[in-house]
Amino acid sequence: MAKKLKAYRFPLILLSSIMIGSIIGLIFGEKAGIIRPLGDLFLNLLFMVVVPLVFFSISSAVANMDSMRRLGKIMGSMITIFVITGIIASVTMVVATIIFPMGSGVDIPLETPENVEKVTLSDQLVNTFTVPDFVELFSRQNMLALIVFSVLIGLATGLTGDVGKPFARFLESGSEIFMKVIQIIMYYAPIGLGAYFASLIGDMGAELIGDYAQAFLLYYPVSILYFSIGFTLYAFLAGGKKGVARFWKNILTPAATALGTGSSFATLPVNLQAAKNIGVPKDIRETVLPLGATIHMDGSCLSAILKIAFVFGVFNMDYSGIDTFLTAIAIALLSGVVMSGIPGGGFIGEMVIVTFYGLPIQALPIISAIGVVVDPPATMLNSTGDTVASMLVTRQLEGKEWMDKVNVEEQQTAYMQGMKKETM
Questions:
Q1: Contact 248, 185 (CB under 8 A)
Q2: Is the pLDDT of residue 158 over 80?
Q3: For residues 238 and 207, which has the higher predicted lDDT (pLDDT)?
């Protein structure tokens, strides 16, 4: 029992710091913002290391892959699982919004944003996956372009053969070094998360009781149920009872980090460590998790459906019929793909909703306000969903006995470590 509690010690410390910070925010209100810099320091430390971590983890995983066929299998399985789980999340929220209608009787002033730039779909795709200058790759706002570049570097390194092996070792070494940097930064996490939540609750606590309480009261229970029941089911499909036990033993730290930072990419380093502890193979976790931080967002699919249902209610539109629901699910998947993993992200996805339904531009601030309210649990689902997705990819590629292989590898490692101690 003591051993199990020790395994959960750090996640419990993080959750306790969040609760303490929230209480401070409720008690002191806006005055709690005085400790906001302590939280911003933690976020900045995580964001500072995200770009090199993504580059080294993806490029090293691709460069050291045994074969390009293996990469193709990982990518194919990953996309399939991302789409299926996204659809399940969307359908879950569709059912919830049918049972509990949104936006009826809400009176929200409409304001038209100025200077809205119109971008064609083709230009948006080009700007999303590429950048015009190499130095722009060093910005976390161009993560998809960085991922494409990292995959190309990994492919080129692997195809170079023996000449590229020294560079492949450099990439692998870089990946391990930046993971160690993350472990060092996480020692500061309890202080940083506590301070950030104190400021957040101090600023927003009163507003959450206002016009958007309806969305708040629906999204939070649905997201908690999806997290606890849906992800448990996914973990069971991936690794049986052992998979469920390993998932819950390691997922609380990423969940707490995602709640505190509001960013999938800020949580990525902690997620990679959790997947490693669960036993997900290196090439799978270092391919699926960085890509998932951008294009796999179950929480965003849930929130996209909620936004659509809410704005339908506000504008007295008919939110019924199979066609309406199928369209909403398709838009949820699309907006989940184009959303970036930064705090307060999702603006592009919200523009997709407004544009597709031909809504007045005044609908944008309404949707954006909902996004702010549900952002913490949505980000938690986005991030932790990547971890369980990597488990499902492993199950598909390695077979149902992959959890048993993990136990064998652990025993072999422990044996080798014991031998080293005896010889010293």
A1: no
A2: yes
A3: 238
DSSP 57-114: HHHHHHHT-S-HHHHHHHHHHHHHHHHHHHHHHHHHHHHHHHHS--STT------PPS
**Which among 230, 259, 192, 231 is positioned nearest to 37, based on CA atoms?**
192
Cα dihedral sign, 414-415-416-420: positive
Band the pLDDT of 349: cuts 50, 70, 90.
low
Extract the tokens encoding 125: 């795709």
Count of helix runs (H) and strand runs (E) in the chain: 18, 0
Say how many C-beta atoms besides its own lie within 10 A of residue 291's C-beta.
24
Closest CA to 259 of 388, 386, 379: 379
Distance CA 76, CA 71 (A): 9
**Hunting for tokens 């560079």 — which residue is that?**
167
DSSP tag of 131: -
End-to-end alpha-carbon separation of the chain, Å?
32
Q: CB under 8 Å to 417, separation ≥6 — which residues?
A: none
> Would you say residue 411 has pLDDT above 50?
no
**34-71 per-position pLDDT tens digit:** 998 998 888 788 778 878 888 888 888 788 776 667 77
pTM of the predicted protein model: 0.68
**Spatial CA neighbour of 285 closest among 379, 394, 184:** 394
DSSP, residue by residue, 188-255 = GHHHHHHHHHHHHHHHHTTGGGSTTHHHHHHHHHHHHHIIIIIHHHHHHHHHHHHHHHHHHHHSHHHH
Please tell me what DSSP assigns to residue 186.
G
**Rama region for 312: left / alpha / beta (φ>0; ψ in -120 to 50; rest):** alpha
How far apart are the C-alpha atoms of 295 and 417, rounded to whole Å? 39
Residue 149 backbone phi and psi in degrees, to 5? -60, -40
- For the record, the structure tokens of 327 come out as 């369209």
- Measured between alpha carbons, how far is 53 from 40 in angstroms, rounded to an integer? 20
What single letter denotes the amino acid at residue 308? I
pLDDT digits (tens, 9 = 90+) for 246-272: 999 999 889 988 887 777 777 888 899
**What pLDDT is attached to residue 385?**
92
Report the distance separating Cα 345 and Cα 258, nearest Å.
13
Structure tokens of 98?
Answer: 């049918």
Q: Is residue 281 scored above 70 in pLDDT?
A: yes
Assigned token pair, 193: 């998360």
